[in-house]
Amino acid sequence: MQSQNDILNPELLWIGKRCYRVNIPNENRNTEHAINYEDEEYDDEFNCEIGENDFFEIETLEGGNKFQLKMHVPQAFHSQVIGSKGATKKRLEQETSCQITVPKINSKDTTVIIKSATKKNIISAKNRIDLIMIAGRSKLQFTHFLSIPFTTKEIQENFVKFKNIILEDSEIFGIDESLFQNSQKLHLTITTLSLFDNEDRVIAAELLQDCKEFIIEPILQDGILKVKMAGLDYMNDDPSSVDVLYAKVISEQLQEISNAINDYFASRGYTQSKSDHVKMHVTLINSLFRDNDDAIMKDESHSRDKDRNNQQQHQRITFDASMILKKYKDYYFGEAIIKEINLSQRFSKSSNGYYESTGILRI
């Protein structure tokens, strides 16, 4: 049974750029089981309250007797909103007392229209569709990632020196140049995102800009964000059979900022947060680089399970990092002042050699 405090202070859920108050009528019900795609059964756990601070672009029709909401839904999710033989859409309409119009198959239109006699019904239907999109994003490969470039002259030069030392060391075997990251693409990944059309990308870029005022400035308090890149570590348990060797990034402030940004995007439905602690690392050597210089993205701390499954289709050949760690564990790459966070496009390359950016947050 819900306590009085739970009722008076319901959970706030951010979906897209909207904030919803979540009233859970039964303590045994939770949002993790809100949608089941296999049998298209799901519970309406979001009993929405409309407050003066809530913003919904709801139009008034027929002299105030009917309302309409037009919402952006990427084409990738249209089939999930409709369901098998229209079952999901029909259930949404029945349980929210709304009429829902989804663009026809192969249409370039991404606008789903919700109509009802009350705004509350429309918001309830919108909540459900938002949840379908949140679940859907987690099942699809990511297209973008929030990255911090580590490409200062000092770090790049020290990385090239490190690479040459490893390649020339007669005591180190099984490492060739193809395994190393491109010095122009050295970066730290905060989180990965699945963005499916231009409006998705615009919203993600706006959310990134929000982070300056709400996250970065309160933490830095008009200071500069200075970090060190020093020391080596690896992803696996066995140093003689390693997939990824990386440099550690040292900065309590950057750790706090990265955690908060990851949570911010997760709470708005654009990424699935697997951990409340972003791994502070810059990948140096990756066994998948032999085939793809973007393979690094599959080994970041918040990569998707589907991507991990896809990795199994490629035969990973691990490398022995024992001697590298023994001789160069404390290798120093340099200091850097972090000046920007990028909304980077996967599988891309800009004129400066780094990833193409859909948006940049200047710090």
Automatic annotation (TrEMBL):
Protein name according to UniProt: K Homology domain-containing protein
Domain K Homology: 65-134
GO CC terms: nucleus
SUPFAM superfamilies noted in UniProt: Eukaryotic type KH-domain (KH-domain type I)
A Pfam family annotated for this UniProt entry: KH_1
One Gene Ontology term of the molecular function aspect: RNA binding
Keywords, sorted A to Z: RNA-binding
Organism: Polypedilum vanderplanki (Sleeping chironomid midge)
Entry's Gene Ontology BP terms: DNA alkylation repair; regulation of DNA-templated transcription
SMART domains: KH
CDD domains: KH-I_ASCC1 (cd22419)
